[in-house]
Amino acid sequence: SEPDSRLAVFLKSGTYRLDEASAFFIDPVRVLNRSYTRFRVSPSAYYSRFFPYSNPSICNPHVSPKNPKKRKFRGQDKKISQALNSREQLADRRHQEARMGLLKAHEALLGDSDLLGVLRNLRGDGDENHGEMTSDLDFVKLGSVWQAPFYEIVLKVGDDGSAAENAGIGSSYQREVPVFDNFIAIESSHDIEAELLDHKYILPKKSCVYMSDLRQIHKLIPAESDCGFNLIVIDPPWENSSAHQKQKYQTLPNKYFLSLPVKQLTHSSGALVALWVTNREKLRTFVENELFPKWGVKSAATFYWLKVKADGSLIGELDLFHHRPYECLLLGLVDGKSMQGMDFEELQKPIGIPDNQVFISVPGDHSRKPPIGELLLDYIPGPKPARCIELFAREMTEGWTSWGNDPLHFQDSRYFIPS
Ligand code: SAM
User: For the purposes of burial, counting CB atoms within 10 Å of the CB of 54, is it exposed (0-12), middle (13-18) or buried (19 or more)?
Assistant: First the structure.
């Protein structure tokens, strides 16, 4: 496609196709904005990590650009000169498989001066939202006290009339509903404001949220399997030393994920499962040998998220063993009730998911993933529009159900600016 039209599509949609490398560049802010009409996601709040400082070692202590080889890892000093053990060899083999595609995608990005121009200005200007840094509500803590069932969120349906009409009352009204353990559906065709304990939230149009602990997840299982989901995105709180050190969120041992009711959440016409994993080889082996088989998921492809800074450079060295500048999204298919007996080939063939696709973006907050739903649309089995759910979500999206113990996290009004 023509560069000009690609850029025009990007400015609207937030995704830019790097044709020559079967890769995409994503601006999460533009993608997320499609769920909002009255508010916009604040670029400076989203990109607070990689835009405010000119010295990369300040915003990312993991990267020491001057002399990366000097960096020491726990117990790794000696290993560097020794042969890799068998697990490290496997990890290295996976990395080598990904490497060419990642380099090609990165080269395509660096060779596209139009895109680089846009990239440098992603944070934009005239958005000074970052000044007011109120502290976020701690939903995990609030949800675990005895009063939790009594906390109510006030949903303020605006004066556009859309949802108020349905309720048969004036031009604007508000509704109070329990915030924990309660399925909340926003039916309005505009985003709405909500309030809880003096905190303001912006909730996207036509979205659903269910905030609970893992113990309540079975309440999401639909009574009829044709009300199940066709796209299931999962970003589990995997245990890893860095999440522990920073205490950003609770993590869970792997065995808890074995009991996620993926099969029961699946639509009768099947589902595409997209699972975020870290680069630890032990985890990859667990997913392949235990988790996917237990869920009934058959591996179909691996996508890679390559992380860059505002100048287009990688956030860290590609070959640094323990801090790769990319993460993996494992894609697999689950068959639904109406397709039992079909073999995997039959299920897979019409969908034809390409392997090793790369998507590039500038990361937001720690462990915040870019919105990838759009990139997966072509590979989702079943009727359209697909029914989509995100497990362990920290934000809401139009057309999606978000579940987790902190799904309103990035809905705090401090991440938004009025449109
Ligand atoms: N995908 C998210 C994003 O892009 O921002 C990040 C998800 S983060 C890796 C994992 C989430 O799981 C955190 O929000 C954490 O609070 C949540 N979590 C941890 N333990 C949980 C539990 N027992 N029940 C429900 N959610 C839990």
Answer: exposed
Q: Which residues contact 61 (CB under 8 A, 6 or more apart)?
A: none
Residues 190-224: tens digit of each pLDDT? 999 999 999 999 999 999 999 999 999 999 998 87
Percent of the chain residues topping a pLDDT of 70: 82
From 219, 406, 408, 410, the mutation candidate for ligand 1 (largest count of ligand atoms within 8 A of CB) is 406
pTM of the predicted protein model: 0.89
Q: Is the CB of 234 under 6 A from ligand 1?
A: no
Q: CB–CB of 357/170 below 8 Å?
A: no
Ligand 1 and 248: CB distance under 6 A: no
Measured CA to CA, the distance from residue 212 to residue 402 in angstroms comes to: 11
d(CA 339, CA 399) in angstroms, rounded, equals 25
Q: Is the pLDDT of residue 303 over 90?
A: yes
d(C-alpha 369, C-alpha 392), whole Å: 11
The strand ranges marked E within 257-415 are 271-277, 298-307, 326-334, 358-361, 388-391, 400-404
Alpha-carbon distances, residue 414 vs 44, 172, 176, 199, 405 (angstroms):
11, 23, 22, 9, 20
Residue 176: φ, ψ to 5°: -105, 125
Angle of CA points 247, 248, 251, to nearest 5°:
75
Ligand 1, atom 11: closest residue by C-alpha: 392
| CA–CA separation, 36 and 193 (whole Å) | 11
End-to-end CA distance of the chain: 31
DSSP strand pairing (358-361 vs 298-307):
parallel
Q: Check if the beta carbon of residue 288 is closer than 8 Å to that of residue 299.
A: yes
Measured N-to-C along each axis, helices 86-110 and 113-120 cross at an angle, to the nearest 10 degrees, of 100
pLDDT tens for 75-107 read 444 455 567 788 888 889 999 999 999 999 999
Looking at ligand 1, which atom is closest to the CA of residue 238?
9
